[in-house]
Design a protein that fits this description.
Elements: H1 4-10, E1 18-19, H2 20-29, H3 34-41, E2 47-48, H4 51-57, H5 68-76
Antiparallel strand pairs: 1-2
């Protein structure tokens, strides 16, 4: 499976915003392996603002070290974007 860092590495020479075809073409030019190309070819045909947006759209997680139970706990937390010290306010 393609990793977040792989996608960013193979798209490092791409100028954004970029269309899906530009993203795939750049990855091919950079010598991306088949699993990265497969993920990028499955992208929706929209304009992408940056590599992170491309990776997220391809379903590649930026933090693979977070397991499924931790993700579920974060999803249940209704204050997930509020700093810890502000939660009591």
């Amino acid at each position: 499976m393609a990793s977040y860092s792989d996608v960013l590495h193979y798209l490092s020479g791409l100028d954004y915003p970029a269309e899906k075809d530009d993203v795939v073409r750049e990855a091919e030019r950079a010598g991306a392996p088949p699993e990265v190309l497969k993920a990028l070819r499955a992208l929706p045909p929209v304009d992408y603002a940056n590599g992170t947006e491309v990776a997220r759209s391809a379903g590649i997680d930026a933090a693979p070290e977070v397991d499924a139970s931790q993700r579920a706990a974060q999803a249940r937390d209704r204050h997930q974007r509020v700093s810890q010290h502000l939660r009591g306010i």
